[in-house]
Design goal:
globular, 14 helices, disordered C terminus, 20 strands, nine-stranded mixed β-sheet, alpha/beta, about 35% helix
């Protein structure tokens, strides 16, 4: 079955995105106001939850800041009342995403489905209709930076590109679903766009990338750093001409390291399961919010909006594209700063700084005489969530062979989940080549927070005193 796609809607939205890319600040504000009123009117008409919340309000005049903050857990508990199509059943959707065969397949014949990674608790299910997918497609196609503009002139359809996506390829995550959906929509691209799992041992991943010889690698910053280390050590021969990163914070030091190791440009983006394409970099390396389709409100601990130039404790998202599953003042959990000054690139799309979770890459002891085994944090999270059902955890590396797995959960059920997590994590790390790893499990434990204010899920303590692996 073909993925969700409406050619006419895609054409119209692409034209809208193209015209708004260089629009004035006043035009962008007018677009936001118009689309917000349309979203609120649709939510009041079709979502039982928002029909109650917006009762007596005029969608054209209601102030966004007067509406309540919404949280993932409460929305998922009221899923059937939240969504705008009564045919959407959470139970049926859970069954759908449990089967990898359904990745990028239509749900009910016309919806695209993915789930969140569970980085701030149990995963949520997000359903997109053709309208929302047309917006994400247009933003990806028209606002992603051109790192090699001269080559794009010679090859506007990217017919010579070989794009490798490195991620959790067996899960219904937004990036994985998007890659597979693109492969299905464009059969001619299928052989030139491939997914590679970062859950496999690193030497096998490098061998697969070498065989594919990608010109572009799209992955998470932590995985890009790991591949850059392999490249510098001579264990990865692949020489991409572009690196695209997203899904995590990319520090200036990490960007410089990856760029130097591969001798190619690096571009970062900001997106979420709740809105796939929130921001892209301009030629100056500054992230610009796609404010014609998304509203971000950084807020303080009391729920008050903070002024530009300041980071709140969290950020609220209003998704203007998805009327099927209204996300209105939704707590993203990220710390975003709206810059005070306009960007020198000339764009009136707001410039932002994003600080996400500060997770670490594990470096574990391997076989005697072999280098340390490196495991990216998102791989650890994926294994613990998908195979053990453990979502509230923190994994602390205390030495080259010692890990502490903590959870705040207590009681018999939490104990069973923790024991299962121990089993699947040990098997996964052994499969990666780590040897003699001791995993200590503790329930009812507090967790550490990173600079972003988010819980750090994978932490590697200082290894200055560790013996060589």
């Amino acid at each position: 079955m073909s993925p969700t796609f409406d050619p006419w809607r895609a054409y119209v939205v692409a034209a809208e995105v193209s015209m708004a890319t260089r629009a004035s600040a006043e035009s962008l504000a007018a677009l936001r106001a118009q689309r917000l009123a349309a979203l609120l009117a649709s939510a009041a008409a079709h979502s039982l939850r928002y029909r109650r919340l917006l009762a007596g309000c005029d969608p054209a005049t209601v102030r966004l800041e007067d509406l309540p903050v919404s949280h993932k857990a409460e929305l998922m508990r009221d899923f059937e009342g939240w969504v705008a199509d009564p045919a959407l059943s959470l139970q049926a959707l859970r069954r759908f995403v449990a089967d990898p065969v359904n990745i990028a397949a239509d749900f009910l014949g016309h919806y695209t489905v993915w789930e969140s990674s569970g980085s701030t608790g149990e995963p949520a299910i997000f359903v997109q209709d053709a309208r929302a997918m047309a917006v994400y497609d247009a933003l990806e196609a028209l606002r992603r930076p051109q790192l090699r503009p001269f080559e794009r002139l010679l090859d506007p359809w990217s017919l010579t590109e070989r794009i490798a996506f490195v991620g959790a390829t067996d899960g219904h995550f937004a990036s994985t679903v998007s890659v597979e959906r693109l492969r299905r929509l464009q059969p001619g691209l299928a052989q030139r766009l491939q997914g590679f799992s970062f859950l496999q041992p690193l030497d096998r991943l490098c061998a697969e990338l070498d065989a594919f010889a990608p010109t572009v690698v799209a992955t998470y910053p932590s995985a890009a750093v790991l591949l850059a280390e392999e490249r510098q050590a001579g264990r990865l021969r692949a020489a991409p001409r572009e690196i695209w990163t997203g899904g995590e914070a990319l520090s200036a030091a990490s960007r410089a390291f990856v760029r130097h190791a591969f001798a190619c440009p690096v571009a970062n983006s900001y997106g979420a399961s709740e809105f796939l394409s929130l921001a892209f970099e301009c030629p100056l390396g500054v992230l610009h919010l796609n404010s014609d389709w998304a509203i971000l409100e950084p807020i303080d601990a009391h729920g008050r909006c903070v002024p530009p130039g300041h980071a709140g404790v969290t950020t609220l998202l209003t998704n203007l594209a998805n009327h099927l599953q209204p996300l209105i003042r939704y707590d993203l959990g990220d710390r975003v700063t709206l810059r005070e000054a306009c960007c020198d690139c000339g764009s009136h799309l707001p410039a932002i700084d994003v600080r996400g979770r500060d997770d670490d890459t594990l470096r574990l002891a391997g076989a005697a005489g072999m280098p340390a085994v490196k495991v990216v944090p998102l791989a650890v999270s994926t294994v613990l969530e998908e195979e053990a059902g453990l979502f509230d955890f923190q994994l602390v590396q205390q030495g080259p062979r010692d890990l502490l797995l903590k959870t705040r959960g207590q009681g018999e059920q939490a104990g069973r989940t923790l024991r299962k997590a121990h089993t699947v994590l040990a098997a996964f790390l052994e499969g990666q080549g780590a040897q003699g790893i001791h995993i200590h499990c503790r329930g009812g434990q507090s967790t550490q927070y990173g600079r972003s204010g988010k819980i750090r899920r994978v932490i590697s303590q200082s290894d200055a005193a560790w013996p060589p692996c």
